[in-house]
Design brief:
Helix content is 29%, strand content 31%. By secondary structure, it is α+β, with helices and mostly antiparallel strands. The strands form five sheets. It has a seven-stranded antiparallel sheet with strand order 18-17-14-15-16-13-19. The protein has a five-stranded antiparallel sheet with strand order 5-11-8-7-12, with no helix packed on it. The protein folds into three domains: 6-105; 140-217, Elongation Factor Tu (Ef-tu), domain 3; 226-247 and 259-337, no CATH class. It starts with 5 loop residues before the first strand and ends with a strand. It is rod-shaped and about 150 Å long. Helix 1 (13-55) packs antiparallel against helix 2.
C-alpha cells in the first residue's frame, strides 16, 4: 500500500451528527454576537442622547448614570458573545477532527503484515489505542533480535559480522552485521540475556517477519589452523590404561617416584609444569598403536573444535576421545584444517 491510502473506515454517523451540532452551535453563537453588537450600538446612542439632555438639565443625573451603565454592559456583552463564538468554533474543529479520524490512513509505504480487525467489529480505545494493522515499511531490510547470554555478551561489538540460519531454509546461511547491543536485560526463569540487533539484507525476500533464527557471532577467526576436537581435550584415560603405560618398577632404589610422571609426559613437547595454564591442554594420541600424552596450547574455539597454537601434533594424528569395550580399546578422532 501507499502512504496516505485509505485502509479502513470507522462508522462515521455519530461523528457526523456531532459535527452538525457543533456547526449549529457555532452559527447560533455568531448570531448572538451580532445581536450583542446591535444592542451595544443602541445603548451607546441612548447614552449619548442622555448626555445631551443632561447638559440641558432635562433629565435627572440618575437617568444619565443608568444610560452609561447600560452602554457599558452592552459592550461587555459583545466581548462575552465573541468568546462564545470562539468556544463554539473550537468545538466545531474538535468534532471535525474526530470525524476525520474515522478514516484510517496508511502512515507509510509498505506491506500489511497482520490485520487485527474485521468488518463490523467494535473498536474501543480506553487507555491505549488498539492496533488495527501491522505494516512493514520495507521487507528488503530486516533486523534480527537475538537473546545473548550474559556470559557471551562481553565478546560482542558493534559492527562485527554474524551468521544465522532459519528452519525454513536449513541449508542456507544468512549473513548480517551487529548494529546495536541493547543494555536492557531480559530475565526468563532466572536466565539473563541481552538483545543484540543484527541488520540483514533481505533483497530476495526469503526471510519473513517472526521467523526463529539460530545466530552465530564471529568474534575471533583464524585461517589455516590445525583443529583439535574438544572431546579429545576432555578425555582422561582410565587408571587401568595409565597403569599399563607405566614402566616396570625397579626392585629397589629411591628414583622410583619420578618414573610415573616422566613416562606419562613422554612425547609431550612441553614441560609438565606448563599444563596448569588456562590455554594449556593435554591430548592423548595414538602413535605406533600406543597412546601418548601430548601437551598443547589452544586458541580460539567454536565449542566443538579448538585451534592449535603450539604442540607436537600434525594433520592426520589420531586423537583419543573415548575408551570403549573392556579390553581398553581407544576411540580416536583425527585432526583437520579449519576452513
Amino acid at each position: 500500500m501507499k502512504k496516505g491510502e485509505l485502509i479502513a473506515k470507522i462508522d462515521p454517523q455519530l461523528f457526523q451528527a456531532s459535527v452538525a451540532q457543533a456547526r449549529a452551535n457555532y452559527v447560533a453563537a455568531q448570531g448572538n454576537l451580532a445581536k450583542a453588537k446591535a444592542q451595544a450600538l443602541d445603548a451607546e446612542r441612548q447614552y449619548k442622547r442622555s448626555v445631551t439632555l443632561a447638559e440641558r438639565k432635562l433629565i435627572a443625573q440618575a437617568d444619565l448614570d443608568t444610560a452609561q451603565a447600560t452602554a457599558d454592559a452592552a459592550k461587555a456583552g459583545v466581548d462575552a458573545a465573541a468568546g462564545s463564538v470562539a468556544q463554539a468554533n473550537a468545538q466545531l474543529h474538535s468534532a471535525e477532527v474526530n470525524l476525520a479520524y474515522t478514516d484510517i490512513i496508511s502512515p507509510t509505504n509498505g506491506v500489511v503484515i497482520s490485520r487485527n480487525v474485521d468488518v463490523g467489529q467494535t473498536v474501543a480505545a480506553s487507555l491505549q489505542a488498539p492496533t488495527l494493522f501491522l505494516i512493514a515499511e520495507d521487507l528488503r531490510k530486516m533486523q534480527v533480535d537475538t537473546s545473548v547470554a550474559e556470559a557471551d555478551i562481553g565478546q560482542l561489538r558493534t559492527g562485527m559480522p554474524a551468521t544465522f540460519t532459519v528452519d525454513a531454509y536449513p541449508t542456507a546461511t544468512f549473513v548480517g552485521t551487529v548494529r546495536q547491543i541493547r543494555n536492557a536485560p531480559q530475565t526468563v526463569q532466572n536466565v539473563v540475556t541481552y538483545d543484540a540487533v543484527i541488520d540483514v539484507d533481505n533483497s530476495d525476500l526469503k526471510l519473513k517477519p517472526g521467523m526463529t533464527a539460530n545466530c552465530t557471532f564471529i568474534y575471533a577467526e583464524e585461517d589455516n589452523a590445525l583443529r583439535v576436537p574438544n572431546a579429545a581435550l576432555r578425555f582422561h584415560p582410565p587408571a587401568a590404561l595409565l597403569a599399563s603405560l607405566q614402566p616396570a618398577a625397579p626392585a629397589a632404589g629411591r628414583g622410583t617416584r619420578g618414573a610415573g610422571p616422566q613416562a606419562a609426559g613422554a612425547g609431550s613437547g612441553m614441560p609438565a609444569k606448563a599444563l596448569g595454564s588456562a590455554d594449556r591442554k593435554t591430548v592423548w594420541v595414538l602413535r605406533a598403536g600406543k597412546p601418548v600424552r601430548v601437551a598443547i596450547r589452544t586458541g580460539v574455539t567454536d565449542g566443538i573444535m579448538s585451534a592449535l597454537v603450539e604442540g607436537d601434533l600434525a594433520v592426520g594424528d589420531s586423537a583419543i576421545t573415548d575408551v570403549s569395550g573392556g579390553n581398553g580399546q581407544q576411540r580416536a578422532g583425527g585432526f583437520g584444517r579449519m576452513f
